[in-house]
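Two folds, back to back.
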Amino acid sequence: MNLEERIQAFATLGDFLSQFSTNGIVKKESIPYNDLFFEGFKHQLKLAKEHNGWFTNENILFTLDNWSNALTNSNIKQFVQNYSFKEIDSKKVAIIMAGNIPLVGFHDFFCVLLSGHNVLVKQSSNDKHLLPYLAKYLEYAAPGFKDKITFTEGKLENFDAVIATGSDNTARYFEYYFKGKPSIIRKNRNSVAILTGKETEDQLSRLSNDIFRYYGLGCRNVSKIFLPKNYDFENFFKAMYNWHPIINESKYANNYDYNKAVYLMSEFDMLENGFLMIKEDASYASPIATVFYEHYESLESLKKKLDTDSEKIQCVVSDNLVDNTIVFGETQNPQLGDYADGVDTLSFLLKI
């Protein structure tokens, strides 16, 4: 397969995914192989939801919406235009995927196949239903992908490079186990927002999406906010209110009740509104239903802190207060070139 054929295969997959949207699941005419795959994928969505209580219909369909929008012929061509795709000696690249949000490892999978390599996938047990089915669709859309995609539940063997995503603890194991192999090893990261108190109601409302989407389980979710001294939380809490139905989700409510009890028994100071707790804390990783906050003396001192802690941070949300900022409400809408941890996966793959 040449690059153009690989691009077209993923664009065809994007067309297939366009039928599964937050606006509804609607079968379209003229989608290739739809009679074979449409009803089956609906069943996979059901299985994914039953297997993992965090994978609600809304969150799964939100993910599929994003990938459908990203996987167009023009988007993929724009994504690859700054790379040199020479004839490469195809290697087998292993991917160890996380399972915190639906299809969280798809971008790595996409990059490996797009670059011309073979992929060996070890999925998380929390997210094992969606990707194999989409991989089978790809093989129908482009038979050249057959024998280039392998899934395993056992020990990874006979591979040439690895992309592994996990916690700080598992990263140490990965670094030891995969030493001597070209690798990208990803650790814990969290996203932050910088507020000044001058944000509009719309900006704060959009920030609520950055906080609550996927229940806050993603590395692109805002888990900490930086605030000026004497920040008034009134407008912040008002803007969060559109997400209040989240407390009706049992898994979220259980975490909210548990963490609230821990804070109260420990006599920690915190603010809460019935579905979200705000706690002053120097850490970046906050528990579910909690957002940490920290005051800053000046934007200059905050910039230095963020630079120092850059390896702990995935995204910074603000009203253009720092370099490489993300506007409010867009953390969960990454583009193809928004690499996890800022590591250029495609460049890595084209050099191995």
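---
second:
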Amino acid sequence: MSTAPTPDAPGQPALSIRDLRKTYDNGVEALKGVSLDVSPGDFYALLGPNGAGKSTLIGVTSSLVNKTSGEVRIFGVDITARRDEAMRLIGLVPQEINFNMFEKPFDICVNYAGFYGVPREQARARAEQVLKDAQLWDKADKMSRTLSGGMKRRLMIARAMMTQPRLLILDEPTAGVDIEIRRGMWKTLKEINAAGTTIILTTHYLEEAESLCRNLAIIDKGRIVEQGPMKALLAKLDVEGFLLDIDGGLPATLPAIAGATLLAADDHTIDLEMPRSMDLNGVFAALDAAGVRVRSMRTKTNRLEELFVRLTGNQEAAA
């Protein structure tokens, strides 16, 4: 088939998982009754420490790993009973680069589409479009091994889009790339999502999830420990953090402020954590009394990391 199948009925979740369990032959119980729904058009984050079950969950959903029990449906299509239909609805971007480095990007895309039954002329037209969308059209006839790291990552996404998937799953898509390349990929993914494709993202970069995703699930030790809207989960934090830029140097000892934690981030910056209910004016007054003049302040951006650590107890949330 040249196009993805139509889902069973309108209003179906893009991904519906019920009581999913996976026990490997060595006895490791990787998934312990996972249930979640991803709505059509969502940009959804799946977070968790190494060994939490993220890769197994993605593997089962993309039919690369056999489940022990439970149910997985893609737009209402059961991945066990109707595997081929379900897989035509999915585009998968794995963490590792897995295309032939001695092939040209244009040929990589066209041949990939051919595996899914897309007619060659249609595949050629589609390859031009996805490579233009990925800002790779000028590299279409170059050997892939000559591409930069960021270009190779974008080629992985372009290849996955050749089947016009309803659901795009990305497993650590920006792992190992610098921040400039990462932000360029964020732009690409936002455009794909805005065009209607549902995206599920696994990432260790927590600022990435906060920037891109509207909903998330946090998995730890094979169980979902929290899920819901990003904003609602972040609002559960009862503390907030600020960085205070100081005129001049810091005193040898920072003032003690009941309920707040003050640490010297460097010689001219204070790292402040305080309850949400606490009045900032009291903090400023105490600092002023100690001879500390605050020139400017900014909100810390690691709220999602803080939530992750609290829920999982994992102190190595970020890669």
